[in-house]
Amino acid sequence: MNEETNSGIIVPEHLEPGEIRTRRAFLAAAGAAGLAYTAALAYPIYRYLASPEEMALSATAVTEVTLKDAQKLPLGAVLMFKFGTAPAMLIHHEDGRWIAMTAVCTHLGCTVQYEPQADRIHCACHGGVYNPYTGANVSGPPPKPLTLFKAVKNDTGVEVSRA
Amino acid sequence: MTSKTDAIYDWVDERLGLSELAAFARHKTVPVHSQSFWYYWGGISLFLFLVQCFTGVLLLVYYRPGAEAYESVRQITFVMHFGWLIRSAHAWSANLMIFSILVHMFSVFFMKAYRKPREFGWLSGMALLGIASVFGFSGYLLPMDELSYFATKVGLQIPAAIPWIGPAIANMLRGGPDVSEFTVQRFFALHVVVLPAIFLPLLGFHLWLVQRHGNAVPPSVEALPPSERKAMPFLPNFLRKDLAMWLISLNILALLASVFPWALGKPYDSLAPAPIGIHPEWYFMSPFEMLKMLGAVLPGEIGEIAGILLFTVGIALWVLIPFYDTSKEQGRRGRAAHYFGLLAVFALLVTTVIGYWTIR
Asked: For tag attachment on chain A, is the N or C end more exposed, with fewer CB atoms within 10 Å?
């Protein structure tokens, strides 16, 4: 026969209420120890698997990239480069302007390409189109413009930095 | 609520026969006697094998076989967070697993647990030990540091000494006349695909046999009338103790792996001389030393062939013991098998000690 205490806990008849408390304390301590043990095992494994992600994070902290010899880029040409971890593009427009922006489509993350004949930036995945001077999303599914960088030409190359 | 879970249980049970399994587990018992301690070692080996699978998959995440092997292990050890720990755990657990399999094997041998109807248990166990040592040998090369290079070079001299076909076998294993990135690539395939594919079904067979025949008892207990034999239920009593053993093993492993992290040597260089004091892993030390001793008595090719012959005969005798020592009565053959086992333990221990003693 079991009795029900007023807290609603079933007390086996052969146990004194004091024993219930120590048993419950023991179970709680054992549970906490088990959790701590599991966490001690899981933490190194998590950090191990997350290592490349952490390395990438430190790479995304990049705020400036120097593209050596990029000043020799002919008019109407484009140079793809990595800004941190993501692809980016430097366009030398026919009018002589230097424009740099991210090359990751804001729709689903494909890498976009500059099309000099059509004077547009096009994403082949779902047909998104961007303005090659401002990065503005012109047509197709992209919800947001491409982020512009600041591009400054000097004698040895082009400096690209966050605008 | 309860009726719903019952209904789901019934639905699954009807299709998978869960209650038969549960009934089997409820009735399963483990004998209790003065030698019961040795029953844990099969379970410990199994646990360490699971650790190997788990840490092995974690290493696979960053390991690259072939020409980049050393660089990727360097990266795991020094660049990836806790990579040194995962690698150290894999290496330590491999050694502990071989150790616990050996303890398991000798306890089975001296309890005469290989006798009818457990011959297949013994044979499959020996095959598992054989595969485990090939696991050890192939895994040892994968970091492609100095030690692994020379260990593989020397180890492959043993199959190379087999008359006529030996050199062809060694070349096939090496993927060329010398240990190179081709060797590490094929040892990798062996280590992570071929060996697990053979090991796992064999392990399943081995465990199934244990369920089918139950634990063997030593002859002294077998001689007792059934009323005087003691047993404990597997569920939950033995399982609880088994899991406690697993926890102890895990703690020992964690301690060894973190306090004595596994080293990574210099990258291998096929032109560099062998480092001073190079020696095989402890579980290959005994055969290495025996070959060395035999080589001193019988120099040259004769010694090599004699060594291989000796090992082949010794291992064959060991593996075939269930077919020699069959009788339940303590007869002459039973005693002979016992002394053969003692001789094997003695020879292994002595040659291992001499091997370590004579490292220069």
From this structure: N
